[in-house]
Inverse folding.
């Protein structure tokens, strides 16, 4: 059994700087390469995209920086034990051997997230239960009492990953999912996940040097993510430093502060010279966007318009349009096909060649009604919805209908 330090003994700062370890950053399907780039910018090495995650190596500073700055990460996990188990008893015995008293605070709370594949462990819930029993039994033996389970807001989140008979235990250094940025004051019916929004913008290749426009902006997630990028505001700037790693025994406050300071210094360091605009037909949801932008102090950077998209021209000059129109079960629109036909007409007649459009949808039937041929189709998931991010390059002259 390999057991690595996870919140274990404190080491002198210099020594710790040099100590590198493996980590896994979780993300959404389709965003792995984008996250790999973000991690490299954090100083990560051995970066390897895998399905819905990226494996990498780095020291504690990389772990802190990845948590604070990566816009497309959902969680940063630190593996700390690997062993083989062929049945429940072996799983229990190996988990019991781990020095949990050096990892978990017996007066804190913990939870276990589990995924299993292969024939050895067919019920992930049962494997998690066995693991929990072993942790609790060991801590009760050592302290006479046990930590409580909290499935919502645990101090220590443990990931149990079993593939065939290979067991890996990982500590979640982020805590709450990193899509919870902390800037949401209110939302519409179907707000897009913040990580997906940031991923869409990055996939569009927007470099903050052309205008940005979302004609169906809802509560403004794409606009806020865009304005944060333009201002170099770290992804978790509004999260109030709520990270699980701060409860680890080897949490190094000086290192964390220095990483945060370095990143915060970049805020507003470069003046961006572009317009960021949003539009929506629903005034209530637009007010949510306004409240979110105000909270994030980005309201001066973003213009909001009220009306139907076909009445609002994008800003003048080169513009990237990134949008998330209605689709799926949460939104009922009388005639989605008609809405998509109007969207295509608006792109052709009102936007023209100065605009490049990126649109995400899970409605493959309605998608055909746009009547334009996408030059790129990228598969993404919005929750469980299989989606496509479509790129439309617009040009003047006659369009060949798809
Ligand atoms: C999926 S939601 C967008 C959610 C948004 N990305 C967010 O994070 O909150 C689709 C939005 O399209 C808007 N919408 C529907 N028809 C519209 C139209 N004709 N013109 C402008 N907006 C429209 C809805 O009001 C809704 O806010």
């Amino acid at each position: 059994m390999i057991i690595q330090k996870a919140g274990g003994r404190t080491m002198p700062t210099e020594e710790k700087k040099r100590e590198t370890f493996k980590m896994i950053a979780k993300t959404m399907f389709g965003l792995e390469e984008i996250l790999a780039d973000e991690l490299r910018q954090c100083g990560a090495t051995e970066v390897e995209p895998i399905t819905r995650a990226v494996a990498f190596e780095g020291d504690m500073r990389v772990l802190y920086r990845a948590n604070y700055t990566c816009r497309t990460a959902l969680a940063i996990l630190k593996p700390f034990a690997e062993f083989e188990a062929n049945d429940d008893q072996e799983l229990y015995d190996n988990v019991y051997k781990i020095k949990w008293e050096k990892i978990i605070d017996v007066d804190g709370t913990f939870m276990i997230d589990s995924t299993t594949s292969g024939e050895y462990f067919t019920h992930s819930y049962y494997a998690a239960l066995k693991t929990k029993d072993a942790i609790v039994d060991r801590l009760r033996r050592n302290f006479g009492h046990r930590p409580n389970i909290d499935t919502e807001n645990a101090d220590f989140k443990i990931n149990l990953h079993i593939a065939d008979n290979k067991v890996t235990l990982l500590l979640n250094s982020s805590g709450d999912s990193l899509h919870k940025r902390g800037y949401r004051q209110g939302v519409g019916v179907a707000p897009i996940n913040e990580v997906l929004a940031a991923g869409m913008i990055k996939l569009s290749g927007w470099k903050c040097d052309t205008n940005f426009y979302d004609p169906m902006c809802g509560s403004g997630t794409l606009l806020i993510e865009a304005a944060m990028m333009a201002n170099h505001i770290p992804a978790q700037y509004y999260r109030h430093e709520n990270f699980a790693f701060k409860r680890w025994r080897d949490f190094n406050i000086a290192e964390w502060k220095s990483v945060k300071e370095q990143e915060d210094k970049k805020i507003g360091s470069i003046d961006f010279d572009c317009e960021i605009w949003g539009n929506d037909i629903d005034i209530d949801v637009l007010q949510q966007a306004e409240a979110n932008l105000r909270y994030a102090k980005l309201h001066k950077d973003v213009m909001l318009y009220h009306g139907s998209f076909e009445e609002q021209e994008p800003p003048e000059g080169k513009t990237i349009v990134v949008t998330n129109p209605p689709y799926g079960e949460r939104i009922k629109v009388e005639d989605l096909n008609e809405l998509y036909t109007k969207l295509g007409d608006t792109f052709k007649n009102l936007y023209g060649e100065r605009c490049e459009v990126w649109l995400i949808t899970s409605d493959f039937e309605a998608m055909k009604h746009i009547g334009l041929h996408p030059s790129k189709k990228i598969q993404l998931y919005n929750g469980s919805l299989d989606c496509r991010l479509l790129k439309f390059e617009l040009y003047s002259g006659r369009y060949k209908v798809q």
